[in-house]
Amino acid sequence: MANANWLRSLLLLVVGGIFGGLLTSTWEHRIALAQRNNAQSSAATLATMETDLAHLKEIVPPASHPMVDVGLFATNLWFAGQRRNWPLANYYLGEMRNRMRWEVHLNPGPKGADGTTVDMQSIFDGVDNGTLTSVKRTIQMKDSKQFLVEYKHLLEDCYSCHMRAGRPYIRPMVPVSGSQPVVNLDPDATWPQ
Fold this sequence. Notes:
Order of helices and strands: HHHHH
CATH superfamily of the largest domain: Oxygen-evolving enhancer protein 3 (PsbQ), four-helix up-down bundle
Oligomer: single chain
């Protein structure tokens, strides 16, 4: 009887070992399949990301795009100031400032006329803390005469920046006419109701 118990125990141990080995093998097989599927999924995700990145590079506007907006807002700023529409002038000044900041973000270090890198952030900081602040103060004071002076100083600073960035051929001026604006610059306008 002792032999039978010993044989039964041995048989039970062997069957348990085989069963455990099968479970472990199945478990490891599932892990290997999951890892392989993850690797395939990661490769597909990486390929999709690369395609998306290439597409974004194709559709991104040129770095000069914000400066086109700056010109538009500077023109509208001038005419709003001339019409003494101070809230609108303040709006255009803010939009102009934001587009200048965007340009600096897109093109922080262009090559100057001498081939050296130009620190656009430093230039922007100087204009932002100087002329843009003076124009804003003039708008807040609603001073038409001082607005003309500060606006011309702003154009001088703009031209200084253009020269430093190797673009002396971009010469800003006080606008004499603008494109047909969709915004009515008259602060007393009643249309549309």
